Amino acid sequence: FFVPNVLFLFLLFGNILADELVVVVLVSLVPLVVPIHVMFLGLFTSGIQALIFATLAVAYISESIESHH
């Protein structure tokens, strides 16, 4: 029960960290034009990640509840 949750935690953390590192690199390359587009891309990818993480969490919780009954 504990290990899959920790794995999901590290997966989500890694995705968010990678997104922020890409933003930092792109903003440092072109500081005037890219930040607005990258900000919207970051919002979009964060929303997708939150949706996927919530879906996986609900599926895992529902499966663990069903296996106990």
From TrEMBL:
Matching InterPro entries: ATP_syn_F0_a_bact/chloroplast, F0_ATP_A_sf
- Major place of localization? membrane
The record's Gene Ontology cellular component field reads: proton-transporting ATP synthase complex
Q: Where in the cell is it found?
A: Membrane
Q: Which GO terms describe its biological process?
A: proton motive force-driven ATP synthesis
What protein does this entry describe?
A: F0F1 ATP synthase subunit A
Q: What family does the database annotate?
A: Belongs to the ATPase A chain family.
Source domain of life is Eukaryota
UniProt membrane topology term = Multi-pass membrane protein
Keyword Cytoplasm applies? no
Q: Name one GO molecular function term.
A: proton transmembrane transporter activity
Q: Which UniProt keywords apply?
A: ATP synthesis, CF(0), Hydrogen ion transport, Ion transport, Membrane, Transmembrane, Transmembrane helix, Transport
